[in-house]
């Protein structure tokens, strides 16, 4: 007996000493965040702190977003992930508490006695309670619980990330739809003018002032515009349906006002400082909670190498006659047991589990660094894009006004034979192209404002 105790102690010391080689303090080289977004400003004011209802200030768009936040399938899936994580917290917490099981059974067996023709039936009645409790000496269960809590918090941030993306996606698609409406209106106006020009050319052909080639050129230009009109009409249908999909609805007409495309956002562009991305962006916060969970998982994986302390107790009543089940002292049975169980043979499985937890944590640390770098780059890009689009918009607006006048000038000159029909065609085509480009720039400006708001971490707060 003494020899067995010595062997047990040696094995126990071997297990404990092997755990000392398992490093749980992991880190990677990280780049320091710059103090600003390639600008000289250090103002901490940021549009990310503005509620999306105040930032957009468009009643139609706000109503669409409200509907999506209630119906969108992706957001509903994210909410269910939170419920799954919450259940994980409850499960891990329950493992810290003692376990109590109740057992009830009744049966009958037979026993053969010499001299009897038939076996004698023997009844058996059993009622018992069994309790067990794993004492969390090495904090394995407690670390598992903390990991579950961190995963729950990460799932909340994941939902916030989905919310922010959903708000931005609806706003972007909404402005794309408004741009298509304006393009369609411009094409309808252009088609009307091109029909008038075609009538003029036909009349001049009849009077001998021009030839059939001019008529064909004007007619071809008109047909091209009609083709573009139908293509844009199809794009409008698809864009409307895209919004309906985000709203969780079947295809239907989206009520809107196309002139809103040219309205400026009410909020002043303020980016804040890069360090605010750590608290404003849900994707950064989500990965931080995932890293915290991985640290607790790694600690729990290390604790799995240590012996487990278990307490168990049992109280039961068992007798062959049910009426004496709780009455006869002889039917009572009880036991109490304490155990210390240490892993000895299957250490490779525990090492594999530990190495997996270690690799998972390192992977998350690198993902965290990548997420922060990506967030910074996105903000710098959108700030530059917003500034340049403001300049482009001003130039394009002036160009559109000049070319609109040139169409009228070319038409009047053509009527008096001071300009060729080709000059009229070119003027009309340049004017149409410029108007469509101006609408596109206005759309890009609105979308840039949405994207900047999103990449700074806005849009998910209710």
3D architecture notes:
The structure is a single chain. The chain is an alpha+beta fold and 462 residues long. The protein contains ten helices and four strands. The chain starts with a helix and ends in a 7-residue tail after the last helix.
| Spatial shape | elongated
| Tally of structural domains | 2
Instruction: Please summarize the sheet with the most strands.
Output: 4 strands, antiparallel
Q: What integer value in Å does the Rg equal?
A: 38 Å
The CATH homologous superfamily of the largest domain is named Outer membrane efflux proteins (OEP)
Strand order in the largest sheet: 1-2-3-4
N- to C-terminal separation?
Answer: 68 Å
User: Which structural category fits the helices and strands?
Assistant: alpha+beta
CATH topology of the largest domain: Outer membrane efflux proteins (OEP)
Average pLDDT over all residues: 88
Q: What would CATH call the architecture of the largest domain?
A: Up-down Bundle
Strand content: 5-15%
Question: How many distinct helices?
Answer: 10
Number of strands: 4
Helix content: 55-70%
| SSE pattern, N- to C-terminal | HHHHEEHHHHEEHH
Poorly predicted ranges: none
Per CATH, the class of the largest domain reads: Mainly Alpha
């Amino acid at each position: 007996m003494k020899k067995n105790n010595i062997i047990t102690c040696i094995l126990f010391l071997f297990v404990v000493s092997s755990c000392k080689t398992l490093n749980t303090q992991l880190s990677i080289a990280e780049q320091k965040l710059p103090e600003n977004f390639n600008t000289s400003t250090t103002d901490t004011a940021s549009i990310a702190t503005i509620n999306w209802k105040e930032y957009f200030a468009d009643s139609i768009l706000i109503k669409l977003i409200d509907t999506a936040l209630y119906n969108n399938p992706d957001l509903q899936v994210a909410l269910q992930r939170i419920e799954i994580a919450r259940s994980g917290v409850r499960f891990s917490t329950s493992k810290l508490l003692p376990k109590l099981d109740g057992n009830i059974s009744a049966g009958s067996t037979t026993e053969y006695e010499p001299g009897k023709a038939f076996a004698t039936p023997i009844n058996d009645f059993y009622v018992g309670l069994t309790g067990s409790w794993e004492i969390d000496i090495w904090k394995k269960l407690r670390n598992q619980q903390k990991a579950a809590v961190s995963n729950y918090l990460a799932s909340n941030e994941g939902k916030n990330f989905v919310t922010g993306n959903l708000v931005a996606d609806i706003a972007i698609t909404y402005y794309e739809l408004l741009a298509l409406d304006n393009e369609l209106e411009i094409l309808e106006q252009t088609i009307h003018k091109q029909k008038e020009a075609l009538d003029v050319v036909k009349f001049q052909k009849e009077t001998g002032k021009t030839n059939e080639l001019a008529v064909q050129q004007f007619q071809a230009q008109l047909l091209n515009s009609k083709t573009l009109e139908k293509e844009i009409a199809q794009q409008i249908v698809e864009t409307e349906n895209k919004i309906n999909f985000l709203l969780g609805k079947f295809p239907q007409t989206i009520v809107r006002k196309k002139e809103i495309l040219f309205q400026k956002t009410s909020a002043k562009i303020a980016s804040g400082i890069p360090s605010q991305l750590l608290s404003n962006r849900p994707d950064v916060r989500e990965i931080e909670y995932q890293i915290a969970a991985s640290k607790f998982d790694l600690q729990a994986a290390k604790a799995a190498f240590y012996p487990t302390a278990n307490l168990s107790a049992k109280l039961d009543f068992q007798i062959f006659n049910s009426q004496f089940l709780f009455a006869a002292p002889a039917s009572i049975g009880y036991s109490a047991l304490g155990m210390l169980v240490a892993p000895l043979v299957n250490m490779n499985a525990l090492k594999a589990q530990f190495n997996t937890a270690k690799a998972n944590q390192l992977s998350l640390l690198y993902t965290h660094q990548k997420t922060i770098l990506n967030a910074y780059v996105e903000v710098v890009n959108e700030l530059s894009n917003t500034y340049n689009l403001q300049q482009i918009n001003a130039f394009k607006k002036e160009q559109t006004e000049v070319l609109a006048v040139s169409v009228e000038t070319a038409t009047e000159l053509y009527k008096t034979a001071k300009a060729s029909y080709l000059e009229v065609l070119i003027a009309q085509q340049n004017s149409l192209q410029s108007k469509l480009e101006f609408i596109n720039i206005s759309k890009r400006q609105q979308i840039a404002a949405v994207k900047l708001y999103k990449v700074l971490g806005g849009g998910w707060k209710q």
